Amino acid sequence: MTSTPDPVATPPLVTPPVILVVDDAVDTLRMLGDALVAEGYVVLAARDAEEALERFEVAVPDGVLLDAVMPGMDGFALCEHLKATPAWSHVPIVFMTGLSESDQILRGFACGGVDYVVKPLRIPEVMARLATHVRNARVTRLAQEAVDVAGMGTVVLDTQGRMAWRSPQATAWLAQAFGVDAAASKRASEWLGTALNHDNSTFDLGRHGRLLARNMGQGNLGESMLLLTLTPDSATAQRLRDIALTPRETEVLSWLAKGKTNRDIAEILGMSHRTVNKHLEHVFEKLGVETRSAAAAIAGRLLPQV
Questions:
Q1: Domains of the chain, with CATH numbers?
Q2: Of 61, 101, 160, 245, which has the highest C-beta tally within 10 A?
Q3: How far apart are CA 177 and CA 204, in angstroms?
C-alpha cells in the first residue's frame, strides 16, 4: 500500500511592491516599465503630475521614479505635494534628472526626494537604488506601525519646534485632543513643546483617559522625538482586566480593528498565519463574539488607541 505524502505547507503570499513612474516621455515610461516588471514589481505609469495624483488616489505605491522637469506642475512641486499629504508622505521618491543639472539635484533633496538617478538612465543602477529605498521605507513603516500597535505613538519635532513627522496613532490622538482645524496644529505643537522643555506633559481626554507625551531626546539634525501613550480611565482599565487578554492577543486585536487581514497581522508581528488564527480564537472566546466585525467593534470601545 502506498502512503500519501504529507501536504507541503504553502508559504504566505507576498504582495509585490508597486512602483509609480512619472515621466512625459513615452519611451522612458516603456523602458522603465519593462525593466521593473522583469524585476518583479507592479508598475503604474503617469505622464504628468495630474495623472500621478490620480494614481495615488487609487493605490498608494511603494516607491516613485519621478522626472524632475515636466509640463505643467513639475516634479519638484509634485514631490512637495506628496510629502505634505500625511497618507502619502512615507513613499520614497527618486528623481530622474539630467547629468549636469546640479541645481535640480539640490532642489530634489530640498523638497523631499530620497535619491536621484541621471539621464540617460542606467537601468541596473536605477533598479539597485530603487530596491534599497523601497526596502528601507517598508522596514521603517513597519517599525512605526509596531510602535502604534504597542499602544504608543511617536512625534518628531524639528529644530523650530514644528511637527516634522508623526505616526498614524499620534495623529489620531492629537486630533482627538486638539481638533483638526487650522489652529489645531499650533495648539498641539505648543503642548508638545511643554513636554520637550519639561521632559513630559499630560492632556486630559475625559472618558478616553489621559494622553502623556515624554521627551525621548534629540535625534538626527537636532530633531527631537516624543513618545505618546494613552492611559485609559479607571472604568476602561477595569474592563480590560476583566477580559484578561494577553499582551499578544491585545496586539492581534488592535491590528484586526485597523482592518488588517490575518496574513497582514502575521507579517507585521512576525508569526505564522496559524498562530494568528489561534490568538483570534482565544480573543473571540474571551470577548464572547463570533465574527471579526463584532470583535473590532468591541476593540473600538475598549482600546481608545485603536
A1: 18-144 (3.40.50.2300), 150-231 (3.30.450.20), 235-302 (1.10.10.10)
A2: 61
A3: 8
Residue-averaged pLDDT of the chain: 82
Cα separation of the two ends of the chain: 55
Spatial separation of the C-alpha atoms in residues 152 and 144, rounded to whole Å: 10
How many C-beta neighbours within 10 Å does residue 116 have?
19
pTM given for the model: 0.56
Q: What percent of the chain has pLDDT over 70?
A: 84
> Across-strand partners of 240?
none
Q: Give the pLDDT of residue 61.
A: 94
pLDDT band at 7 (very low <50, low <70, confident <90, very high): very low
Rounded to 10 deg, the angle between the 168-178 and 123-149 helix axes is 50
Opening angle at CA 247, ends 238 and 278, nearest 5? 115
Q: Assign residue 259 a region: left if phi > 0, alpha if psi is -120 to 50, beta otherwise?
A: left
Is 21 within 8 Å of 46 (Cβ atoms)? Answer: yes
